[in-house]
């Protein structure tokens, strides 16, 4: 028997003996162990049909893989990389079992992941294929209801107008039993007449459904793969920047606070300028990211962190000293790492949701790939130095210096505004282009750093609340504007034209050009992004009749 797609399966013969049937060449891609999802990497099967037309099936790794979520994340990367070799997709087939009572968290995660990776123009190319459909009489079974509910939930959560239809045109039912039957006959396995009738029926149904599927897909407008790829590239920029942007947000508030303290000190001092001369400088903090040997899951609960004073300043930093999973295998490279459900799958987290090591809830944990060293610098403002040489009274000089420092505070404030402005454009971009919206990682990280400040406040009676308040203001004004954006998108407000993927790289560059924080931000993003890229193989089989 000639087959394009090699396969291997077991069948129980009429003597109840288990026989292994092998078709085609051995394929290292198909894993044989029972219960393992079969395909590990993408592979194409090309059928040369009439009029020189090619039909290319791309077989992808399964989602909800038995190898866990980190494998799923890797699989998505593999699929995106693989399809980048092609220009169009006519159809995106999501294969489901018709009677899946185990549609659970993982199913939800997979559908959401899939739809958040696809450009929304791909929605009309999505179809659902139900396999093993004989047991449900070639109907979608109760999976259909669950699927509809999932899509409904997703639509509500992401507040989009993108609808994926679950109707006859987008649902197809198959069974591969008849194929197995043919292969078995060729291997001299006997079947009864009624079994043969069943298989014949199954064959006919599956062939009819295949034709209906191909006819439907041919009528679809092909999805431009470029759109999905540029969406994903832009999405990666946004995701890798989310934590660094929030880190800079916290840093800006700390630095504003240091300037404010110095202004107060000079303003209220009864000393002469000469006596103050050595104390007129200000300290500013900078972040230096340090790569970790391995990704690490740490606990952020206040009972599990240590607060340390940053050298030469009275500012405090948070050290995550509880390394609950010091060598974490979870792959987060492309997703948000606080408040992320994927953390539940870290080996440190028990089934109950609490940590084996520290006992805290998984939500208190965070997955990190780098740490920040806080370094303090003395800033000597030239304008301040020149004020001193002017022929003015000490009081006047003090006033002039305070004013000079105010400029620096305003500059920091201005950079924070710019960061919020650009983050907002990122949020708008993701909402307008993907089928399912993403978590807002920037907002999540701002929340995280607000919590950090609250812990500092409760531990330190002399804590200066202005840092916490400043960070809250940053978050609140961002969230308010996000709401405005959401409404504008819902109402198709023409004053908010869609942001194109090409714009994202330009906005990223604008961030790096910020005079005070641009360079640090660039270093943080580089560190956040650095992760091993997997090398995949491109394989394709051709079949010519
Ligand atoms: Zn882990
Ligand atoms: Zn823990
Ligand atoms: Zn803990």
UniProtKB/TrEMBL annotation:
InterPro entries per the UniProt record, alphabetical: DUF8206 (IPR058519), P-loop_NTPase (IPR027417)
Entry keyword Coiled coil: yes
UniProt keyword terms in alphabetical order: Coiled coil
Keyword Lipid biosynthesis: no
Domain of life: Eukaryota
Gene3D superfamilies: P-loop containing nucleotide triphosphate hydrolases (3.40.50.300)
One Pfam match: DUF8206
Coiled coil ranges: 398-425
Domain DUF8206: from-to ranges: 291-371
Stated name of the protein: DUF8206 domain-containing protein
Native organism: Glomus cerebriforme
């Amino acid at each position: 028997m000639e087959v394009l797609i090699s396969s291997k399966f077991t069948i129980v013969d009429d003597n109840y003996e288990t026989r292994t049937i092998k078709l085609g060449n051995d394929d290292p891609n198909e894993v044989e162990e029972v219960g393992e999802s079969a395909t590990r990497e993408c592979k194409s099967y090309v059928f040369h049909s009439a009029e020189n037309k090619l039909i290319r099936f791309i077989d992808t790794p399964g989602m909800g893989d038995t190898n866990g979520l980190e494998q799923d994340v890797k699989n998505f990367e593999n699929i995106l990389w693989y399809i980048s070799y092609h220009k169009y997709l006519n159809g995106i087939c999501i294969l489901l079992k018709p009677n899946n009572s185990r549609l659970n968290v993982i199913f939800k995660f997979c559908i959401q992941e899939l739809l958040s990776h696809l450009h929304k123009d791909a929605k009309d190319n999505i179809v659902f294929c139900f396999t093993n459909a004989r047991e449900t009489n070639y109907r979608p079974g109760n999976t259909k209801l669950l699927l509809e509910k999932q899509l409904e939930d997703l639509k509500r959560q992401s507040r989009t107008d993108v609808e994926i239809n679950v109707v006859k045109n987008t649902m197809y039912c198959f069974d591969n039993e008849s194929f197995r039957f043919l292969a078995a006959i060729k291997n001299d396995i006997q079947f009864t007449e009624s079994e043969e009738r069943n298989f014949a029926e199954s064959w006919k149904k599956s062939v009819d459904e295949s034709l209906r599927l191909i006819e439907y897909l041919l009528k679809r407008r092909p999805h431009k793969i470029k759109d999905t790829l540029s969406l994903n590239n832009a999405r990666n920029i946004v995701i890798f920047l989310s934590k660094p942007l929030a880190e800079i947000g916290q840093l800006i508030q700390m630095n504003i606070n240091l300037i404010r303290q110095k202004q107060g000190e000079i303003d209220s001092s009864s000393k002469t300028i000469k006596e103050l001369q050595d104390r007129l400088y200000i300290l500013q903090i900078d972040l230096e990211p340090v790569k970790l040997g391995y990704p690490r899951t740490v606990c952020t609960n206040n009972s599990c962190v240590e607060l340390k004073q940053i050298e030469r300043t009275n500012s405090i930093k948070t050290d995550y000293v509880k390394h609950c999973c010091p060598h974490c295998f979870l792959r987060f490279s492309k997703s948000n790492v606080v408040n992320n459900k994927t953390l539940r799958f870290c080996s440190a987290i028990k089934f109950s949701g609490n940590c084996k090591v520290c006992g805290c809830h998984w939500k208190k944990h965070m997955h990190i790939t780098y740490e920040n060293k806080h370094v303090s610098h003395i800033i000597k403002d030239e304008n301040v130095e020149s004020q001193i040489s002017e022929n003015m009274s000490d009081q006047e000089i003090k006033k002039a210096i305070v004013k000079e420092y105010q400029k620096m505070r305003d500059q920091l404030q201005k950079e924070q505004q710019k960061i919020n402005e650009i983050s907002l454009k990122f949020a708008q971009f993701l909402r307008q282009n993907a089928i399912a919206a993403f978590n807002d990682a920037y907002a999540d990280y701002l929340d995280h750093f607000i919590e950090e400040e609250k812990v500092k406040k409760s531990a330190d009676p002399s804590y200066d609340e202005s840092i916490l308040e400043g960070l809250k203001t940053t978050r609140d004004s961002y969230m308010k504007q996000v709401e405005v954006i959401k409404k504008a998108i819902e109402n198709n407000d023409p004053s908010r034209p869609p942001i194109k993927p090409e714009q994202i790289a330009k906005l990223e560059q604008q961030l790096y050009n910020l005079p005070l924080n641009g360079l640090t931000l660039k270093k943080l993003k580089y560190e956040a992004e650095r992760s091993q890229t997997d090398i995949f193989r491109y394989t394709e089989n051709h079949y010519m009749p």
